[in-house]
Amino acid sequence: MNRSGRSLLGAEKKKVIVLIAILLVSIVFGGIGHAKDVELIGAGATFPYPLYSKMFDVYNKESGVKVNYQAIGSGGGIRQLTNKTVDFGGSDAIMSDKDLAEASAPVLHIPTCAGAVVVTYNLSGNLKLRFTPDAIADIFLGKINKWNDRRISEINPGVKLPDMNVTVVHRSDGSGTTSIFSDYLSKVSKEWKEKVGGGTSLSWPTGLGGKGNPGVAGLVQQTPGSIGYVELIYALQNKMPYGMVKNKKGNFVTATLASTSKAADTNLPDDMKVSLTDTDAPEGYPISGFTWILVYKDQSYGDRTEEKPKELVKLLWWMTHEGQKYTEPLEYAPLSKKAVEKAEKLIKSITYKLSTVMK
User: Fold this and answer.
1) pLDDT tens digit string along 83-96?
2) What is the domain extent for residue 257?
């Protein structure tokens, strides 16, 4: 074969290689481009918002799927899921029988992590305080209204407490953080249970209302002599003090990842609708709770195509597996092996037109 023939043959080979490369690129990036067309919408709890912000940003970069999550409170998340205006809700509260009836179809509670609700306050002097269950209940009932009240002083010997009015700060919106906090108070105080009770929205006996964990944290910071409750990460991010709480075994425990995880060391039901408050664990922090992603078990409602449930299931699997590595750096307790196994079964039970989505 002469030189011109060999040149033509070489040119043809190059064309074939280029065409194959173009085909491979179109297959790979075509798939990613298709995933980018899918946007998942969620709304709900502010409790896990710092974690979800990180998770959803990383997941978008890894998968191309955009996840738009609005932190509007657990009550709002449950409401929007019920109205089917979002693909998933975020909640720190287990849906009530009334909520489930309004949803009119089975809703799954898929845990993503556990967190602690802390009692934070605004007092000068960088005081590290201790609280008993009855003292917390009486403060939020409005029965203890001075910081140097005998009941607070006796718990904190040697601490110089100011002769200052106590200003209670609570959530004004429907809140899973409130649900955890009020569930705890209902367990440790008969008077609280009878007069106020538990739930995402309460008729508060006293205090100022702030929207979301950020709203409560902001009000406490702005109001000398105030006391409120926020998720641990909000206290840490804002360098706010928070108290040790006496647990059921009589130990004063500081909210940490370890003490939160120990609170979750309990029997877990298959549906994962379980309260962690007032734990029996000797070293467990008593105001702890799971946070959940809420989804309809059957995804074939409205005009949903099969693509959305597929991407939703992939996201949920990632959050309960690879995404768990982002929990501890943001002061959330990761799911235990047992909790992950329960979550896997729930995710695998999601269906679309009577067929399981995860094959």
Assistant:
1) 999 999 999 999 99
2) 116-263
